[in-house]
Description:
This protein has ten helices and no strands. With about 375 residues, the chain is mainly α.
Amino acid sequence: xxxxxxxxxxxxxxxxxxxxxxxxxxxxxxxxxxxxxxxxxxxxxxxxxxxxxxxxxxxxxxxxxxxxxxxxxxxxxxxxxxxxxxxxxxxxxxxxxxxxxxxxxxxxxxxxxxxxxxxxxxxxxxxxxxxxxxxxxxxxxxxxxxxxxxxxxxxxxxxxxxxxxxxxxxxxxxxxxxxxxxxxxxxxxxxxxxxxxxxxxxxxxxxxxxxxxxxxxxxxxxxxxxxxxxxxxxxxxxxxxxxxxxxxxxxxxxxxxxxxxxxxxxxxxxxxxxxxxxxxxxxxxxxxxxxxxxxxxxxxxxxxxxxxxxxxxxxxxxxxxxxxxxxxxxxxxxxxxxxxxxxxxxxxxxxxxxxxxxxxxxxxxxxxxxxxxxx
Length: 375
């Protein structure tokens, strides 16, 4: 094809490259130009149109954003831990209390223990009153007492103080148990009771040692008198008196051993209770021997109250002094009177029986409570 204006060859061109004349589309073999508004909807399909809005291939290929769903919170189910008893003690409950400590408190506030304290207070009051009178009588003759009399006077004063402290300690223990529902009782009352038991143990040991020395001295004097009189009429009585002293020596020795174990048992029992209150764990057990001694003491006091002569006769038989009952008062060696009792003495004896029985039962009750906690 050639340009109609200048004749320049323009094959397939829309304008002449030489003169710029627009060439006829028919001559070029191109389709005729049409109005874009009249173009069909599918015009340019499959062809790239720079002016047309092109689809976003990346947007079409991008995955849809995930829908966020808030997690549903479920509160965990609380399971109470299983408490196991540590070695040598009782566990603590989830509330912070100790079963062993609560067992101590339940015994300390029991009516049985309260009755025992009241009865013991009555006995102690009568005893203190009697010992104060004895101290006043000895004080009047202080210049004539000598060493032994002075020691006896001081012993009575110490016994008075111990009796008062024992009562105070028991009532402090009872009041502390009532005011502390969790069982964390103050230790003051228990400590006072322990100190008093130590003092009692020392005094009783010293008393029996003194009596032993006196019995040995008297036995030596009887031996010398027997060798002096020879086979005279006094010889048989002196030999029997010497035999009585030997049996009294053995009886006092056995009684000393029992009392030593008794007060040691009380001290260890109170220490066990004290440790349980402090630590909340069971520590040892109270002494059954102490409970047995309480029951025996109550039985002897009851027999002496009903018929004091029975105790006197029993002592005569133990010491082999039945044939000398009219010439020697063996019961005076042990503080037992074969005569009648006064009203105050009767009250003292009844209160002592009640206190001993109640204390004995309280000890056994406490042991049962601790065994239940441990099992």
